[in-house]
Amino acid sequence: MDREQLVAELGKAYGIRVDPDDPILVAALLNRGLLDEAIADLAVAVRASADRITAAAAQQVDGARETAASLVTRAGEWSAERLKMAAQEAGTDLVDRMREQADRAERAGRTALWAAWIIALSVTLAAAGAIGIWLAGSGHG
Fold first, then answer.
1. What percent of the chain is modeled with pLDDT above 90?
2. Staple 3 to which of 20, 70, 76, 83, CB 3.0 to 4.6 Å?
3. What whole-number distance in Å separates Cα of residue 95 and Cα of residue 89?
């Protein structure tokens, strides 16, 4: 804003007549110019700070993404290892149970074989005894 505009504004707004060469007017214009310059410098500094903050935030976001990706990868590896261990334990347990069942079946088979031999021997002895009794009874008759 130049002197003439400021003089006109003061006259309109406050009804004051000021000479364009009045030192107060010069000081006010000088003050206004310095304030405008300071505001412009401040705006540049604020923009630069905002740019640095934005860059730092973007860098933090990238770092957080990398950390999150690493955590997800590690969690996946940990889960896979745990599942593998659980499967191995379950497999070992299953093999142990199958061995136990096979041992039981083998023992049951041996017991059944012994029982069959005992029954066969008993039947043979009973038959021999019956034949002996029959022969003994038929010889006296």
1. 68
2. 20
3. 10
